[in-house]
Amino acid sequence: MNTIFAHQRAVNLAISIFSAIIFWLIMSQLGQLLAQTAMYGVFRIFGGEGVGFLKVVAYTAFIFGWLELREKQRSIRREEAGFSFGLLPQQEQLVLSPEDVQNIKLEAIALERKGFYYLIPNLIKKTATQFRNENDVSETMQALESNLQASKDLREGELETVRYIIQSIPMLGFIGTIIELTSSLRYIAEKDGLRLTREAMSSAFDATLVALVLTILLTYFYHQYIGYMDVFFARVRNYLMDHLIARIYTR
To answer: What does the pLDDT look like over 118-141, one tens digit per residue?
Structure first.
């Protein structure tokens, strides 16, 4: 699994670098072609020369972060298939005896042996095992909550790279701005230096503007995924509480 994960990350990184370079080249070429039009400013901001390499790095980071979030959202969508396995009874007013709980556990184990590794069957197996060991519904419910939280914490921990990218992109923009401002000072000593310096400084904040736009977009996608993940785990909790734990009857 780790090998597959590392391979996917390498593929995402390659896609990000290639896409970032192509996007920057397109913006730069369009800027040159439309230099006398009103759209020139837009293409200059997102393309251009000077600190163009930092913009490429920022585009790469943004695309990579977006691909990471998209892959994780797809992973949750795959996990949603666990609801369709029908491991837990849906009939109203149906109660489960300890023997019924054990049979449900055996069905979850049989599903995993067939190669269907999903969160819901795994939680069902662990919850049923806890009930068999303790024969106490309250203890079983606490065990479910702990297992759910552990699974959610694991997914949130996998977002550390994306969080780092969100924090780093604005820094790249600030670095680009500092480089441009420093470079613009060299024009002061030249003939007509004030005009050249003013023109150079007018584009100094382009890198920061690009970085802030990318950060806003990536932050939106990040919180969109967090909301999607929260809803998924809430659904899993309600599913197991309503159709397993709340139905258990002990004499």
So the answer is: 999 999 999 999 998 888 889 999
Q: Which of 50, 59, 57 is nearest to 206 (CA)?
A: 50
Span 150-178, pLDDT tens digits: 999 999 999 999 999 999 999 998 888 88
Q: What is the DSSP letter of 204?
A: T
With residue 251 as reference, give the H or E element that holds it.
none
The structure tokens 């990350």 sit at: 9
Cβ atoms 176, 54 nearer than 8 A: yes
On whether the CB atoms of residues 98 and 59 are closer than 8 A, the answer is: no
101 neighbors 130 (Cβ within 8 angstroms): no
- The pLDDT confidence band at residue 59, using thresholds 50, 70 and 90, is very high
* 10: Cα within 13 Å, side-chain hemisphere: 6
| Polymer length in residues for the chain | 251
> Which residues face 248 on adjacent strands?
96
Q: What is the structure's pLDDT at 51? A: 64
| 183 token code pair | 């470079």
CB of 209 closer than 8 Å to CB of 45: yes
* Cα separation, 17 vs 19, whole angstroms: 6
**pLDDT for 190 beyond 70:** no
Q: Which of 111, 106, 82, 131 is nearest to 233 (CA)?
A: 82
